[in-house]
Amino acid sequence: MTLKIQKVTTNVTPAHFELLLEADPSKELLDRYLQEGVLFEAVIEKIPVGVLLLTKTEEPNEIEIKNIAVSDQHQHQGIGSDLLQFAKDYATEQGFSKLKVCTGSTSIGQLYFYQKFGFRMSHIEPDFFVVNYDEPIYENGIHLKDLVHLNLTLTSKK
């Protein structure tokens, strides 16, 4: 079982979109992010098992992970870590000095995952999910309201 991470150069497939929706239930926001960013897929035997969507931010030296997801049956196998390392390497190679990711304040597993990888919380955006999503989102039995911003400072490979 060999994992390959590659840029998606064709149209986004239903399999990609299903993975993207795992991490963000807003089709409208995903459509916007896909127009603005670059999508990568983690593939095993030609089947996408994970996705990574990166977009530039308004900050000149910053790139953001807008979406990262791994299929349920492939979780806890290191694929998420591989995608995160790929994002870090890609951002560094493209000359960015900061990698950003945002997640819900109730996303306990994701907050642990990003911090374990070296991300640091920078700030919280209150009521982001209340304002930007039509339906309430519940995660870990808690009504998701706030967005947590995390940053990772990148060091050049030069």
TrEMBL record:
Keyword terms of this UniProt record: Transferase
An example Gene Ontology molecular-function term: N-acetyltransferase activity
Chain ranges of the N-acetyltransferase domain: 3-145
Keyword Oxidoreductase in annotation: no
Keyword flag Transferase: yes
Domain of life: Bacteria
Pfam family, one: Acetyltransf_1
InterPro entries according to UniProt: Acyl_CoA_acyltransferase, GNAT_dom, NAT_camello-type
Protein name, as recorded: GNAT family N-acetyltransferase
